[in-house]
Amino acid sequence: MSHDTPTPKRPLLSSRSISRDLTASLVGIVLLVATAMAGYVYWQQSEEMWRKAEEKGEDTIASVAEILAVPIWNLDYDNARLIGSVYTHDDMVQGIRIYGSRNEVVFAHEKFSGVLADFSKVRSIVFEGRTIGRAEIDFTLTREKQQLDEQMLVSTLIIVVAISVILAITGLLLRIFLNKPLHVLQQGIARVAKGDFSYEFGEVRHTELIEIATRFRRMSAEIEAREKKLQAMNKTLQEAEEKYRGIFENAIEGILQATPDGVLRRANPAMARIFGYDSLDEFLSNVRSLGSRIMVNPDRMQDFYKQVRERGEIKRFEAEYYRRDGKTIWGSLNARAIYSDSGEIIFIEGILEDITDRKKAEQDLADLNRHLEQLVRERTEDLVNKARELEEANQRLRELDEMKSAFLSSVSHELRTPLTSILGFAKLLHKEFTRNYLPLAQNEPLLVKKGQRIQNNLLIISHEGERLTRLINDVLDLNKIESGSMGWRDERLNMSDIVETAVQSVTGLFSQNPQVGLVSEIDPALPVVIADPDRMQQVLINLLNNAAKFTDDGSVTVRAFPRFGQVRVEIADTGVGIHPEDQNRIFEKFHQTKTATMGDKPKGTGLGLTICREIVEHYSGRIWVESEPGKGSTFIFTLPSAS
């Protein structure tokens, strides 16, 4: 018995025509564009109308205030009223009010009582710099608005006529160029659907429709090819199913399928082996669900179901289970929910892994960690005790350092007093010996020779005394800086003047060696810095003295210029240079470079550069050296500018 297949009803929207939709879309677009343009023109003309009205209103109120100045001043109110009545004939003027110097009403007139004015203007009446009254005018734009509305009505009618013409022409063109070719294409597709692939769509002339026909024939050929592929895929699917079945049966992990309430539907042999059963049938007959019978802690299973329902899956759900022989094992369960088309859970799939050995290893590791934690606590106590001892030793060192600073200060002061006397008497003896005693031995060569030796010895005493004085001063300065007792007299400094003064101070030193020139390149626009001028002079003179001491030929160049919000000062020489291994240690206390070309040059204290570094870093600056042996050195320091 055959049943006729009912013909499905066509949806309401399927009866729509492409030509009508295109025509309606075109009309809608034209309407939208025309409306937007009309609205823009209306807005622009309205703005222009208001602008001109404002200008005219401003001119009118200014003219009224100017003309009324003389009559109001002369109290000629009749003439003022006459002037006011003249302006009432203006179409824009809705009302005018003129007030005298005492705010009395001189003239008032309203054209339209009860109608709000579009805008108003108020202007004081001034005569010879004195305000003697005021004029108020209300303006209306009724006539201008009416003209603008009439213009927009005409524009709207023109747009409606234009749209009607476009609609008629568009419908005719679509019928010629679209409806007929589509009808031919529909007939061809119907024949192709019946299996007539020989239809060539000969009546179709448009490129787009020919492309559609070509693609439809290509689609038919692809359908036949896909059917063959589908058969091959079915065969592959069957093979994959057999392969999956083999994996399912031979897997090491337990694989299960259960209902949403935990009743087992399927399981693989590995599940039976994990729980100590000889066969899968025996396991399924004894273990019907994942419930309380095999769970050591049944409440954990409720947590399992809750997570599966909320998340749709659960990973590494670890729980303890009973085996058939009563022993317990640990299992890690990965499961996911399988949903129906309506979104309800159909069943739960899961993989159970026996992790008993891993749990035992974790327990052993936890015991080891506890043991290690105990050892760490004991070691920490030892370290705390050591830290306490170190703190006590550090406190003792600080006390010793303070004692050292006090000792150095005391000793340096005690040394300075006799040293000053020694230097003074040595210079006095040298002067007296040279003036009074050395001339007496002019005729005796032996006495002259001994006298010159005494003279040289006195010079050596003076030079060494001066070097010892410098050493004591440097030690005192460094001790003050390190102990924090240095008196810093900070002020706003013009670094151009400071550098120029330092250069002038060492001019005499460079005059002793005419083969070395002193060059200064100082930017006059150096920013201001906040520092102690004496300490800045000390840094510059120390660096210039070092440059002069280690330069036998060439020049020493002093550069000072602003850079990145800082003052950068460079002292570059063409002297012997500094070895790379000394460049990292040159600013350390008592460190002196070992240069083969120094010869008999006087040695310094080894504290000058250390003091320079301490001073520069005190003002948040930085000092360093760039040098190459045999090619000279450049000492550079930077100071932040005053904000």
From TrEMBL:
CDD domains: HAMP (cd06225), HATPase_EvgS-ArcB-TorS-like (cd16922), HisKA (cd00082), PAS (cd00130)
Residue span, PAS domain: 240-277
Annotated Histidine kinase domain residues: 410-643
InterPro entries xref list: HAMP_dom (IPR003660), HATPase_C_sf (IPR036890), HATPase_dom (IPR003594), His_kinase_dom (IPR005467), HisK_dim/P_dom (IPR003661), HisK_dim/P_sf (IPR036097), PAC (IPR001610), PAS (IPR000014)
Lineage top rank: taxon: Bacteria
One GO cellular component, as annotated: membrane
Compartments, record wording: Membrane
Domain PAC stretches: 315-367
Sequence intervals crossing the membrane: 22-43, 153-178
Keywords in alphabetical order: Coiled coil, Kinase, Membrane, Phosphoprotein, Transferase, Transmembrane, Transmembrane helix
Occurrences of domain HAMP (ranges): 176-228
Main localization category: membrane
Molecular function as annotated in GO: phosphorelay sensor kinase activity
Stretches assigned to coiled coil: 220-250, 358-410
Enzyme Commission numbers on file: 2.7.13.3
Catalytic activity field: ATP + protein L-histidine = ADP + protein N-phospho-L-histidine
PANTHER family noted in UniProt: TWO-COMPONENT HISTIDINE PROTEIN KINASE
Protein name as catalogued: histidine kinase
Organism, as annotated: Pseudodesulfovibrio aespoeensis (strain ATCC 700646 / DSM 10631 / Aspo-2)
